[in-house]
Design goal:
Layout (H helix, E strand, L loop, with lengths): L7 H20 L37 H15 L6 H11 L3 E9 L10 H11 L4 E13 L15 E13 L1
Antiparallel strand pairs: 1-3, 2-3
Length: 175
């Protein structure tokens, strides 16, 4: 019989039951051993005596797999945290989340030491201007800013004449 249940507890229970049945079958008494049959020849003498099987001591416990699994299940409730109701879980999550507000504006991202724009700092400036503590950039815009020398007719454009500025246009702000 094959378990087709999607429930992990049912699969685990079936697995434990199968292991228990295998162990109980293997741990039982074996087939009784007798003398090999003789081929028509009989020995003369006293009839064979069978020794009485000695019983194992009753006070000794066999720490097998089943006993160890039982000990594990006894310890399991103390190891795992208590299960909370759905309303308690939602309350815990709502306490962890901070209220946030989306603001819009236009703050230039300063250039960091590696040459990339630092928009986290610009988002913080945008949010602090609106009365919040910090912010996270949601959208940004880039524009090329050139000096007035570019507008002179007949002048050759140089690489330093223009630069690309990045702006934070909206941010998610939190207290």
């Amino acid at each position: 019989m094959m378990v087709r249940s999607g429930n992990p507890a049912a699969r685990l229970g079936t697995l434990i039951l199968a292991v228990a049945l295998i162990l109980l079958g293997a741990g039982g008494a074996g087939w009784p051993q007798s003398r090999p049959p003789s081929l028509g020849l009989q020995e003369q003498g006293a009839p064979p005596s069978t020794p009485a099987p000695s019983a194992p001591p009753a006070g000794e416990e066999n720490p097998g797999l089943i006993n160890e699994m039982g000990k594990l299940f006894d310890k399991l409730p103390s190891i795992l945290p208590p299960i909370k109701s759905p309303s308690e879980t939602v309350n815990d999550l709502s306490r962890l989340t901070k209220p946030s507000t989306m603001v819009s504006g236009r703050v230039v991202c300063p250039v960091s030491s590696n040459g990339a724009p630092d928009c986290k700092q610009a988002a913080d400036q945008l949010c602090q201007g609106k009365g919040y503590k910090e912010g996270k950039s949601l959208s940004a815009d880039s524009a090329e800013k050139c000096s007035a020398k570019v507008l002179i007719p007949g002048r050759q454009r140089k690489p330093d004449d223009c630069r690309t500025d990045t702006f934070v246009t909206s941010a998610l702000c939190q207290n």
